[in-house]
Amino acid sequence: RLVGPNCMGIINTLPEIKMNATFVAEEPRNGKMAFCSQSGAIGAAVLNSLRETDIRFSQFISVGNKADVTENDLLEFWEKDKNVSVITYYLESFEAGENFIKYFIDGKITKPVIILKGGRTSSGIKAASSHTGALGSSDKVVDAVLRQFGIIRADDLNDMFNTAKGFEDFPIPEGNRVAVITNAGGPAILTVDTLERNSLTLAELTPETKMKLREIVHPQGSVNNPVDLLPGGTAEQFKQVNEILVQDKNVDAVISVFVEPIMVPAMPVIEGISDIKSSKPIFQVVMPLPEFWDKYRKESKTKRSLFRRPEDPAVVIGNMLKFKNKPANTKHLSPKSEKVAGLQLQKDKFLSQDEVIKISKHYNLPIIETQLFEYDKLKDAKVNFPVVLKAVGEKIIHKSDLKGVVLNIKDKSELIKTADEMTKN
C-alpha cells in the first residue's frame, strides 16, 4: 500500500515497533489514540508541540493526497486494532464519503471517532480546494451526517485532542450533571458558561453534601455549586471536597479548577486529586505559575491528563456524552413490501402529493393540514387564512422553479388571483 504522496509519513509508538518515518524528530509517548492528518503541516505542528500538549499516540499517519491509503482504510484498520481506543482525523475532504459512512451504517465502528474538518466556510472550502484539489462538501451536510452517526466533530485542534484524552483517560459520565470546584471565581464562570453551551447542567448538590462541605470550606467561600474554596484553599481541602462531590448521587462528573496562588503549590493539589478512586470522572484544570510544567513532567506521578483552560473539560464531557447517547444503529432500512398504505410503489417515479400524505399518515409522521382542490373548484374552498398555495401534478416536480409555491395568502381573492397566475406558468 502507498501512503501519500505529499505527506509527512507515519509513526507507530508500540514498544515492539517504535518507528518514526516522518520528517519530525519528536517522538510521541505511547498512548491509545490514532491520528490521521490530511495536512502534513498540521501533523508536523502537532508533533512539534507534544511536550506542551502531553498528547500520546498509538499511531500517526499523514495521508497527503490519498492516492492509495485513505481515511476509509484507516477507519477499518483502527477499529480492529486493539492498541487503538480513540480515532482522530484532520480532514479537508472526504475521499469517498458514502463508503466512510457505510462502516457506521453497518454497525462496524464501536470506537469514538473525532473529526476536525477544515473548510467549513465558503472561503475555507476554496482554500482547501486550492491546497489539495479536493471538492468541498456543504458544511451543513457534513455536520448533519456526522451528528446522525455519533461521529464527534471538533471545532479546533485543542477540542479534538482534549476530547481524545478524555476518552483515553476518564470513564464516560453517566449523565450531564456536573459539579465544579474552584479557588477563583472568574475561571469558574467560564466553566459554567461552557457547560450550558454543551448541553450540560450544574448539579443540584444534596443537603447532605452541603453539610459535609461546610465543615471544610471557608465561611466566606461557597458550598453551592460551583464550590468556592477561595485562593487559600489547600491541597487537602481540594482533595476532600472532590471526594465528597463524587459521592453525591446528583453528580455525574466533577470539574476541579485550580489557579495557582503563591502560597499554595499546584503539584500537591494535582497529585492529591489524582489519588481519588472513583467511577465518576474528575477533570482537573490547572492554571499554574510558568515554571510548573517542566517540574510536572519530570516529577509527577499523575497518569491522567490535565487541562489548561477552564472551558476545556465541559467541551470534553459534552463530546463524550454525544458518543454515549448517539442514535441507535438502524443499519439498512428497507421496506418489507413494495406496498405501503395500500399504494403500489414504483422505482424511478416521484410520489404524488396525495401519495406523500397517505404514506406520512401511515407512519404517523407529522404533516401540516393539507387540502387538495382542482383549479375550477378552488373558489368554493373553505379554508382558514393565511394559507400556502402549492401546485401539484404528475409533471410538476421542482415547484419553486415554476413559481408553484406561494406563501402567506391572506384571503379568498388573493388565493384565486395566485392560482390564476400559477396556471400560466
Give the helix/strand layout:
Blueprint: E1 9-12, E2 19-22, E3 29-37, H1 40-48, H2 50-53, E4 56-62, H3 71-80, E5 86-91, H4 97-105, E6 113-117, H5 122-132, H6 139-148, E7 152-153, H7 157-169, E8 177-182, H8 185-197, E9 201-202, H9 207-214, E10 227-228, H10 235-246, E11 253-259, H11 266-274, E12 282-287, H12 292-299, E13 306-307, H13 312-324, E14 339-340, E15 343-344, H14 353-362, E16 387-390, E17 405-409, H15 412-424
Parallel strand pairs: 3-4, 3-5, 5-6, 6-7, 8-9, 8-10, 8-11, 11-12, 12-13
Antiparallel strand pairs: 1-2, 1-4, 14-15, 16-17
Explain the overall architecture.
The structure is a single chain. About 2% of the residues have low confidence. The protein has 15 helices and 17 strands. It is an alpha/beta fold. The strands form four sheets. It has a seven-stranded mixed β-sheet, sandwiched between helices. It is 36% helix and 18% strand. α7 crosses α13, α8 runs parallel beside α13 and α10 runs parallel beside α11. It folds into three domains: 161 residues, 3-Layer(aba) Sandwich (Rossmann fold); 148 residues, Succinyl-CoA synthetase domains (Rossmann fold); 86 residues, Dna Ligase, domain 1 (2-Layer Sandwich).
The CATH homologous superfamily of the largest domain? Succinyl-CoA synthetase domains
* End-to-end separation: 57 Å
- Quaternary: single chain
- Structural domain count: 3
Total of DSSP H or I helical runs spanning 4+ residues:
15
Flag low-confidence runs: 128-136
Number of strands: 17
Biggest sheet architecture: 7 strands, mixed
